[in-house]
Here is the input.
Amino acid sequence: MSEAYSDAAFMAAETHRPDDVPAGTPLTSLAEKRTNAGLRLLNNRLPDDFPHQVDRGTAGDALTQIALGEAIRRTVRNQRGSTVAEALRLGATWDQVAAALDTTLLAAVDDLRVWAEGQRTLYHRLLAQNPDNRIGLNDDGYHEVMLHVADGVERAADASDTHAEQAPRLRSVLAAAPMVDTVGELRALLEQLPDEMPLQLDDHHRALPDEKNQVHTVHPSLVAVVSGLATEAESKQPGLMLTQVYVPFPAEQEEQAAVATRDDLPAYGELPRAAHYLERGELRPGLKDIAGVLQEVAHLVGEVAADFAEDEDGSALRVEAKRITHSAERIGKLAGEVEAAE
Here is the structure.
């Protein structure tokens, strides 16, 4: 537990953990002590025959720098909500706040909303313990902050309309780059897109089923990204999706691009590909992939895991592996016989 703050005591004390910092320590004191430790570490770069007496850094100084850096980060993060609210109260615009945070307008608004709700909850919890509590946000303070949040939501909605107007241009930019095979090509594409555009990665590689000769590429596409989900600040904006795709090889670039841009390609891996087929009612290929997954599970359980287990446990795992193998065989057989319901 941190003790009451005393500047002299703090400067003299060992600080090797963020929790070593007493409550109420000013940021200026944290920065000063961290700077002093850093200067001593810099002295270690001086030659051994340096003509003047200097204090050289120790492992303790390095730990102090690390611990105080983390303490400063936590302090600044804890103060961010109140500082953003104060900036807005003093006349700063939401665009200026978002720029200061180096984030999107909607993300800045949602961050303040989460902070305000947490502070109101804190206030009422402490109020139940102490009727003189002044920590957190009372109802009036919460209402004032939420007025700023509502204004930010409205401005974010206007920005969303602007994003929608940009969509045709963004689609044409991405259509001109159906495949991105090098870092240079990706950089050239990103230079044509807004810096704040959300980026998502497809969870799975995509590939033509049963195509033996394929080569890896990356297909960029435009998707709708929801921000502030299930909140008053919820909105959609265009986002960039990067999908890893296997395309035919050798083949003309136009043929490869035609495959890369298909939105019906199943996943390359057996389990997600099985889900792709089964969710569409394509039972035979889906069950075939499920059988393959179970065979792999049986191998991992009966050979890999069992080899690391004690004798009795290993034997039990091998028995379970045989059961999984039998299930795989039965499902594989059904895959060739089952018919989908009309």
Observations:
- DSSP finds eleven helices and four strands in the chain.
